[in-house]
Amino acid sequence: MSLLAIKYKRGHLEILNQLLLPHESVYEEITGAEDGWQAIRTMKVRGAPAIALVGALSLAVELLPVSFSSKEELKNFVAEKLQYLTTARPTAVNIMEAAKHLTLFVKDSSSKINDTETVKVELITEIEGMLEKDLSDNKALGRLGAEHMLQLVGADKLKVLTHCNTGSLATSGFGTALGVIRHLSEQDHIDHVFCTETRPYNQGSRLTAYELVYENIPSTLVADSMVSLLMKTKGVHAVVVGADRVVANGDTANKIGTYQIAIAAKHHGIPFYVAVPSTSIDLSLEHGSDIVIEERPAEELTNVAGVRIAAPGIACWNPAFDVTPAELITGGIATECGVFKPSELKKALAGKN
Ligand code: MRU
């Protein structure tokens, strides 16, 4: 079994088909943007950072064998593919950020470099750098988030609750919220981790539980509806979740169910953290209400493992994400640049976009 969502070497990309976890570890080759788009849309790969990485790397493998007749042709090709990749899923900002960055990068390189092939290879190298950067950002934010949490809570061994999957499988490796937990565990500061099922898609029971068991971290799975009782009775010290998009005022879009966990945490006086690389922060939007929330097919709610469990004829609403208002993020927003209060975010990361 593997915790590596993305396997890449120049010219060759494979992704772990997460639809088959935790029963089977099957890698599938991605040969270009079309495959990348499909893998993202169908959730074979998911999690905001992994979506951006697979999108960009799918372009890199498609670009490598192609000879472009001019820099103009290369630029148009790249812009068109990146634009297409951003349409696979609407909420996570990372792939939009990556598309913006890479479109500017190729434009800038074209103005400095004469040879079209060299511009292409520079772009591929830039995309490859994103993989390493994501890993080092995860490790940095994991450490910073863990240190902040330990200090705020004032205990040596923590009971931590997390939601959805934010680990190696959602990133280049290590993880964001699960990166904080991984760091705490490596430093022997974990008493216990609770992970939610994360209905309706079960990223918690299928993926986070799998990662926690794989890493031998003491952990317990709970249904989403058990969170308030868990907080009341089990001594949870802190909550940490990831995000698909954090906007300028600190409002945070993350997996559906995050908002109600934040409300319960506030009620019980439990610090609530968001852990993200700065690629998940979108300072171009002011309020959470500006974020487009993806709605997914009803079958994800009505069926479990292909078997219909809901009464025939019932209508369904299946938003994949919700927005947690900044005032409920009481612990902080942990990034590779530091841990910030929502109100500090704009100033701390000004110039990022
Ligand atoms: O629908 P998904 O599985 O892509 O949703 C994933 C999440 O909501 C994660 O919490 C978020 O992307 C952060 S992953 C580091």
UniProtKB/TrEMBL annotation:
Keyword Amino-acid biosynthesis: yes
Pfam family, one: IF-2B
Swiss-Prot/TrEMBL keywords: Amino-acid biosynthesis, Cytoplasm, Isomerase, Methionine biosynthesis, Nucleus
Catalysed reactions, as listed in the record: 5-(methylsulfanyl)-alpha-D-ribose 1-phosphate = 5-(methylsulfanyl)-D-ribulose 1-phosphate
GO cellular component: cytoplasm; nucleus
Gene3D superfamilies: translation initiation factor eif-2b, domain 1, Translation initiation factor eif-2b, domain 2
Pathway: Amino-acid biosynthesis; L-methionine biosynthesis via salvage pathway; L-methionine from S-methyl-5-thio-alpha-D-ribose 1-phosphate: step 1/6
Gene Ontology molecular function, alphabetical: S-methyl-5-thioribose-1-phosphate isomerase activity
InterPro entries: IF-2B-related, IF-M1Pi, IF_2B-like_C, Initiation_fac_2B_a/b/d, M1Pi_N, NagB/RpiA_transferase-like
Active site: 244 (proton donor)
UniProt-annotated location(s): Cytoplasm; Nucleus
Highest taxon listed in the record's lineage: Eukaryota
Site feature location: Transition state stabilizer: 164
Biological processes annotated in GO: L-methionine salvage from methylthioadenosine
EC numbers on record: 5.3.1.23
Function: Catalyzes the interconversion of methylthioribose-1-phosphate (MTR-1-P) into methylthioribulose-1-phosphate (MTRu-1-P).
Family the UniProt entry places it in: Belongs to the eIF-2B alpha/beta/delta subunits family. MtnA subfamily.
Protein's recorded name: Methylthioribose-1-phosphate isomerase
